[in-house]
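Treating backbone geometry as a discrete language has practical consequences that deserve illustration. The amino acid sequence and the backbone structure tokens for this protein are reproduced below.
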Amino acid sequence: MKYAVLAVALISFPALADSGKRDLLGFSPGMTLASAKAFGAKRNFRCETVPKATFALVCRNGAQTVTLVSGFAEGSLIYDVQLKVDIEDLAAGAEKVSKEFGRPPDFVPPSYEPVQRYEWKLETGEKVKLKTDVLTLTSLKIFSENSKQDKAARKAKQLSDF
């Protein structure tokens, strides 16, 4: 039963290697928080902005929990989609993710590493990471763009304070 949530997530990855689809339960990097909230509502997810972290949105539908993270600047795109999972055998979970992507992980944890994780780097600049409690899809390109926008917004705010 521990693979139930991971199996649901993987169903959202049909033939990723061929289709170019990049999402977790339909949520993907590149969406705005507003579009993700509207999408979640259509799929019966209850989405709420994280208190004191207006750049993050948590969407829940029963046992499924998806956390979406964008930049600080208003209108920034989501760069990180995290699906809560519960996996006891991480290696078996990684095999399922690898099967969906049609490729082995780019990072396999050494046995002595305290935090076990598997990682896949995609040709599109996105990264998939699997831990025992979360499956993450991150767009490194959007993260970099958001960082530049956030830095420019902070600089503009500092100048306007004079």
Observations:
- The longest helix spans residues 140-160.
